[in-house]
Amino acid sequence: MGDLAKIFKAYDVRGVVPDELDEPIAEAVGAAFVEVTGAASVVVAHDMRESSVPLAEAFVRGARSRGADVVFAGLGSTDLLYYASGSLGLPGVMFTASHNPARYNGMKMCRGGAVPIGGETGLAEIRDRAAELLGAPAAPTGSLIEKDLLSGYAAHLRGLVDLSAIRPLKVVADAGNGMAGHTVPAVFEGLPLELVPLYFELDGSFPNHEANPLEPQNLLDVQRAVVESGADLGLAFDGDADRCWVVDEQGASVSPSAVTALVATRELAKDPGGTIIHNVITSLGVPEIVREHGGTPVRTRVGHSFIKAEMARTGAIFGGEHSAHYYFRDFWFADSGLLAAMHVLAALGEQERPLSQVVAAYSRYHASGELNSAVADQDEALALVRAAFAGRGEVDELDGLTITGPDWWFNLRASNTEPLLRLNAEAADESKMKAIKDEVLAIVGRVSL
User: Fold this and answer.
1) Which uninterrupted H or E stretch holds 194?
2) Would you say the pTM of this structure is higher than 0.90?
3) Catalytic residue among 52, 98, 255, 323
4) What pLDDT, on a 0 to 100 scale, did the predictor assign at position 384?
5) Which ranges of 46-123 does DSSP label H, i.e. alpha helix?
6) Four-point Cα dihedral 73, 202, 206, 248, nearest 10
7) In Å, how far from its chain's centre is CA 300?
């Protein structure tokens, strides 16, 4: 199947352009997408990468060749595409490689209502059919409608979180030359916010730093700007702006688990007794705080397809991942970094304390962060760790190996794409966290590459 087998991942399509992903492939995928989904109409958006427009246009040709009408939204963030799919009730495709380097591109796909398409929910069928159609283009018969959805998207987000009555706030936003430079000004327009923009120029070559806020070095500019400008907080977005990382007024990074807990309490205040989703590497403080506020916490595997499926199954009002993805029932169970940021702005602006004090109430434990170890045999390493901790805590294998002691826990899980094990450890005491972390890493090191 050539490049198609390589670029179709568990949840999306991703590859190097043009070596692995090119216009003929995008055209074949467009035709296959329509055939597999049975869509009469689809909506398409793209990010600012140089390859995004030609790839998106090729996909559109393929979709139209199967008789589908295409609503072409043009430039947008991934959550704008979800808004388009949800509000229009159409299957959608976003051309982006998110936080990956400039030479990459890809596609995120969903059915109508922003329902995700993954490996087990249609993506494999699209891959197989695209392989059959590759190299056999057909004339377009469906119509093409260009539609600007940015103003509707901005109005929708402002309708979900009311910021009109907050105190004035100074906000540094680092778009990393990604799509937040397009969406943030539209959403913040008219709100009592003084915006300090960093790298809002759309540039898919990412000349300033990678648009990946999970890497600490990519937060240095926003942290510095917050302190130097005396801002109330900072926001850092990834390339397609579906993730947002928060920095407090002192320039300190705010844990996504703390943001998850904060937003959960706000959503529970609107919908008492609701269900909140969190994944296996989220802080233990999240389910504790959810229960204290009358909610029901539900734990899931890491990955947006698992979160979204569990949210739909349970009717959850909100879900958070430690990777700074935040999911909202009122946003078609889809994720939006900017919507989570607006909740943080509302929580901060409704009272007088600085953000560091606000989030302190949601930060109860000391965490290691995610630590990756290259191993020769993932299963052997996991078995060694399980044996070493036998009898010392509760074991579960929902996603990798999680062992929970009286005042600590850790999760060790295998990467799906690399010979890596990913460790997250947490404890009430920092020295205990470090001891657990070091012990696990030492065991894993016996089978390291």
Assistant:
1) strand 193-198
2) yes
3) 98
4) 97
5) 52-65, 78-88
6) -100
7) 15
